[in-house]
Design brief:
Length: 316
């Protein structure tokens, strides 16, 4: 087990290093000069060259990459071209919005998807199964940002129950902050819940006919107990796989939803950096998102071993 984790950690670090190189090369290929964007079209060539030297843009590509990645490894993510402040501070500030938003969306998605998927599997081809199937099809087809607009029209504009957008900050009170995040969290969660519901239903349905579930029923355990105590735990591997992918999407894929609700999160920061050609911010934010995906995949693989004894025996 320890050797497996060590090998996976080594693979994770190599993958992160290769990913950082690809991100740096992709950012370098973007059209436009950050110095020219900052100074405007009326800047003189001498002023432009001076700013390029100040930002280190006149250095060869390998030296710029080594300078950036060595800074990242030391916790120095550089200074934003646009804001003139350390990028690390910007990311931490925006994560105070994005991480709670993603956590709320993950919780809502799980609370919806797992019970619906299990009940649909228990009552296959009945009314609840058909209703859950309809919810899944509609939820998968509806984009999160469009759902967010509908939620604003219904709960903010028409009913006036929720704020239409913006974020008051955690210093204004936890209740107000969570209220501002609720609608965007629901908009993010429902499409993901639709996918996870279908996966849960299929996984549980496949397990219901296994011998150990029939044995549990034969020993007098009720249908609900057989499903929740035996069938669902045995179905967790595909559910965890999809959940791991969704967790990273809910953090990294919140760009449109954060813009719809005018939330100062990490996705909105990435959008602003792209529009302002703030390359150093884009590099660091994209690297954070990529690292999150890689680390989550690592955690998902460890979760496989924890929930499935067969995989533990195979790895041993």
């Amino acid at each position: 087990m320890a050797s497996l984790i060590a090998r996976r950690l080594t693979s994770l670090l190599v993958t992160l290093l290769v990913t950082s190189l690809l991100i740096f090369l992709a950012m370098d290929l973007l059209p436009g000069d950050p110095a020219a964007v900052m100074l405007g079209t009326s800047a003189s060539p001498d002023t432009l060259a001076a700013l390029q030297r100040e930002l280190g843009l006149d250095q060869p590509l390998p030296l710029r990459y080594l300078g950036w990645i060595s800074g990242v490894l030391q916790g120095d993510l550089g200074t934003s071209y646009t804001y003139g402040v350390p990028v690390a501070g910007l990311i931490v500030e925006r994560l105070a919005v994005t991480l709670p938003l993603a956590a709320m969306a993950i919780l809502i998605s799980l609370l919806i998807a797992v019970p619906l998927g299990v009940e649909a599997a228990r009552r296959q081809k009945r009314l609840i199964d058909l209703a859950v199937g309809l919810f899944s099809y509609v939820g998968i087809a509806v984009p999160a940002f469009w759902l967010g607009l509908l939620l604003i029209l219904l709960f903010a504009t028409n009913l006036g129950w929720m704020p239409a957008g913006g974020f008051p900050g955690w210093e204004a009170g936890t209740l107000l902050a969570l209220q501002a995040l609720l609608l965007p969290a629901v908009a993010l969660a429902l499409p993901q819940a639709a996918v996870l519901t279908r996966v849960t239903r299929a996984a549980v349905l496949e397990t219901l006919n296994e011998d150990f579930v029939r044995t549990a029923r034969a020993k007098g355990l009720g249908e609900g107990g057989a499903v929740w105590q035996h069938a669902l735990p045995a179905s967790l591997v595909p559910i965890i796989t999809v959940f791991g992918l969704q967790a990273t999407f809910l953090v990294a894929g919140a760009v449109l939803v954060e813009n719809v609700f005018n939330l100062p999160g990490l996705g909105r920061l990435a959008y602003q950096a792209l529009s302002q050609r703030d390359v150093i911010v884009m590099q660091d934010v994209v690297l954070f998102f990529a690292g999150l995906v890689i680390v989550m995949n690592f955690l998902v693989e460890l979760a496989y071993i924890l929930v499935d004894p067969r995989l533990r025996a195979e790895r041993s």
